[in-house]
Amino acid sequence: MKRASFPFILMALCVVFGGCHNQQGGNSKHKFAKKQKDILELYNMADSIYYKEKRIDTTAFLRFIDKATEFAKDYPKDELSPDMLYRAGIGAMIIAKSAENQAQRATYCKKAIAIFDQFQEAYPNHKNYKYCYYQRGIIYDDILGDVNSAEDQYRDFVNRYPDDPLAPQLEEYIKMLGKSDKEIGEILQLQ
Questions:
Q1: Same domain as 142, residue 103
Q2: How many CA atoms lie within 13 A of 66 on its CB side?
């Protein structure tokens, strides 16, 4: 009798553990879908407040940024990851621009730069790869006032992507970096 019940018990255990495994697999798909949904909802909330209400909800952007960077790290091959990671970098730029003090501005700029670096490392063939140079240039130029670092980023873009429609505009813009309004006026009159 023990021999007959052992295979039965073994088969019962396989069914139970197999069922648990399937439930976990289904549960992990559900968790994954929920994470995707949450990221999109966080992005849409922060984005709509920014564009529709013309105000920056730092908390909403930070929640989105944290979730998006975590998602891209956990699911780098998911089609949503590169888009959300790039947008997280833009979100960090937005909150840096509106920061109340220099320390916060520097913190959010570092976060944005790190996200664009992470993006380029993870997605070297993505269409937005090249625009990370441009975004970092904006951070250095427009937010931090570091003209030399901005020029480096803009030049990297122009040198790597000379046929991009943005390249000629950046070449012209580089000529005006760090110039006074009077100097810019003189440059524009010469052209």
A1: no
A2: 6
